[in-house]
């Protein structure tokens, strides 16, 4: 049954699929708890903590430069989806609209529904990271994190927060939901940083 949805990668894919991962033939949906339904009219992204407080509406996000991205997506539950096509806003472009205190070293990502996950500022503020609102040419569906989610391709997917609505800038690391429940603080797929202590 597993072979219907996942396949073990061949040697030729060793530079694309991290150790211990299987290639997903579809795009699985894994969510803890219920899926929030947030309209673009009501959606907001708030910035606070060690950054000048600001609130961005959907219109604010859509007036920023829009880009198409193709990125591999690695889930800690051992599947990888290759060449996922997204549209959205680069983190580096978004960061031009906020003022961050030099003391900030970490971020807590906050989401509709109460989910949180931590990320270092160094891992967040990278050219390849982006906020996505479109998946394979269609508006990002709620089950995949719509209307907007963060995508951090170089870390496991739980760091790519669905339904994002807040960025809290911090001077020290605080743990998010899964990190408090045994997941690794950083989550780098090629090092198999799945769980704490690994």
Automatic annotation (TrEMBL):
InterPro entries: OxRdtase_Mopterin-bd_dom, OxRdtase_Mopterin-bd_sf. It comes from the Bacteria. Transmembrane segments: none annotated. Signal peptide: none annotated. Residues 33-178 form the Oxidoreductase molybdopterin-binding domain. It holds the Pfam family Oxidored_molyb. Coiled coil: none annotated. This is Sulfite oxidase-like oxidoreductase. It comes from Floridaenema fluviatile BLCC-F154.
């Amino acid at each position: 049954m597993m072979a219907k949805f996942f396949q073990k990668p061949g040697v030729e894919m060793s530079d694309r699929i991290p150790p211990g991962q299987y290639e997903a033939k579809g795009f699985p949906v894994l969510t803890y708890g219920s899926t929030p339904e947030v309209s673009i009219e009501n959606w907001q992204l708030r910035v606070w903590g060690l950054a000048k407080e600001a609130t961005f509406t959907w219109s604010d996000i859509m007036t920023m430069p829009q880009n198409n991205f193709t990125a591999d997506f690695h889930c800690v539950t051992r599947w990888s989806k290759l060449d996922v096509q997204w549209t959205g806003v680069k983190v580096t472009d978004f960061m031009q609209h906020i003022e961050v205190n030099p003391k900030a070293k970490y971020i807590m990502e906050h989401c509709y529904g109460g989910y949180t996950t931590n990320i270092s500022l160094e891992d967040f503020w990278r050219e390849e990271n982006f906020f996505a609102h479109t998946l394979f040419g269609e508006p990002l569906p709620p089950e995949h994190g719509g209307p907007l989610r963060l995508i951090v391709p170089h870390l496991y997917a739980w760091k790519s927060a669905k339904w994002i609505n807040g960025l809290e800038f911090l001077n020290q690391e605080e743990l998010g939901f899964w990190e408090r429940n045994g997941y690794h603080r950083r989550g780098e797929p090629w090092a198999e940083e799945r769980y704490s202590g690994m």
